[in-house]
Input
Amino acid sequence: MCGIIAAATDRSVGKLLVQGLHKMEYRGYDSAGIALHQEDGVAHLRTLGKVNLLEERMIQEKPKGKVGIAHTRWATHGEPSESNAHPHSSKNRVFIVHNGIIENYLALKAALSKKGYLFQSQTDSELIAHLIDSFLNDGKSMIEGMQALKTSLEGAYAIAAIDKEDSNYFYLARNKSPLLLGLGKDEYFAASDPLAIGELTNQFIFLEDGDTAAVSASGLEIFDENQKAVERNVTKIDISAETTSKGNYKHFMEKEIYEQPQAIRNTLDGRIGGEDVLENIFGEGSSKLLAEVKRIQIVAAGTSLHAGRVAANWFSAISQVPTQIDFASEYTYKNPYIDENTLLVTISQSGETADTLTSLRHAKNQSYLGSLTICNVPTSSIARESDFLLLTNAGPEIGVASTKAFTTQLVALMMLAMSIAKAKNVNPKLRTRIVTALRALPEIVEESLKLKKEIQEISPKIAEKDNALFLGRGMFYPIAKEGALKLKEISYIHAEAYPAGELKHGPLALIDENMPVVALAPESELAEKLISNLEEVKARSGTLYVFGDASSNMQIDSGKLMTMPKCDFLLTPILYTIPLQILSYEVALIRGTDIDQPRNLAKSVTVE
Ligand code: AGP
Output
């Protein structure tokens, strides 16, 4: 989704800003732009399409400056186009970049039009430039103008702005959209994503809602929501170039799939010991709180929601606690009934998903026992605003399609199920069994990655189809859903998932030689029933691609049975995710899609 970077330095800023935009490309975007102070005014360049095109324009036009702002846009209001790209300007004096959504933009636009402001774009963002200009005309300074924005703007915003008449500074304002400062030596940066400036500094300040800032190469001033000058804590975060580069892999997604054994080790590290999960791994006092939990409410989106759906089975079987699950985009608006001693669990890779963050903020005013999050980004809003937190420690996930974040979320959720069981003193033997299984998991996952060759054999057959069906029963239904989501996301093949037993209640009508069926058939008490469901597919000339273990005695005439390594049944959902990720990757590779940045999607979805 949209990305902001700004810098005030003593060196040429253009290249530095473009490099920052490249680092944010993974978020998904459709256009890019830059505005920087030059000796003779402001250089303002925007392009539709990739950051490379902006870079080419800059090579031709050679803008020179030391202070500037830049942006990648992901369209919300108005089509992707050069005129809708940021920065937007007011009378070529004030230039702004904006992330978020201005909810009252129509009313503000009408009021500003009445004052004589002309609009060049269809966006909700351009009015911010005009609004600041109108404040300057009223005699306010630039920082006062930034502060006055909150009296007019409703919604979420992170804004960086420059004023042509004030060439040493850029200005910032934040409300509900991430924005942080980076401190260098005689230079300062700002960005909506720490990865954008992670190679320039490891010292960050996270702005809070209502904050504004005035930044030059010689210093910065931060003001809180009451316009009072404040000091904010400096956080050290090391972002190595290695973690944000593809290494020898073709795509970030490929790298992230093959990193999973290590990512899982990192999630487990320091959280299990001896024969059990350790105390208070979700933060000081968490074990005490977990002992009181009577019900769990999970709120998440997309892949993270699938992790929650698997975990609901574990909370029931291991912790003996019932679970309710909701789409984050639906939760806040359904007027939820909250039972006594219910724990709110949010799950989010990015920690910035607006739907999930809105749910968390809404829940803060409800009668929950507390809020706990499973998150991959320590500095994110969800991580900072939750009462309790377990970081998945998967390392930055750059590919839009979530892979290592999902499997590490599952590992973290399994540790949550065990922590609740431990706090309630239930299932001690089962906990010991799971700890042993968790320790062995990274190696078994490593083993499953070797299925790549067999998957490469079947991928061309799926790549030529327009549809696919994924089947799983019990805990494997959410894994089937995750497999279908991965395939849709990056190969643009329409894919659906069903609990295998539901096939006969409708979707069986779709089965013919053009509908490949991918099925998950681990050894379980449901295995026989599943095999009967798959027979129904065979009888209708369907092609079956089955991932099963050595015990799956299936005769497949059309399709293939691929044998998975064995692991403790409770952890098999994690294991069976791996071949589905490889399958979607290999199919997308054949179809030649933009795997790391699939069309229309964004890594961090910061709008509701
Ligand atoms: C996963 O492949 C997707 N890109 C998407 O469904 C994602 O999981 C969802 O947007 C939630 O993101 P989060 O985990 O960062 O909150």
Notes: The chain has a mean pLDDT of 94. The chain has three domains: 3-244, 252-449, 451-591.
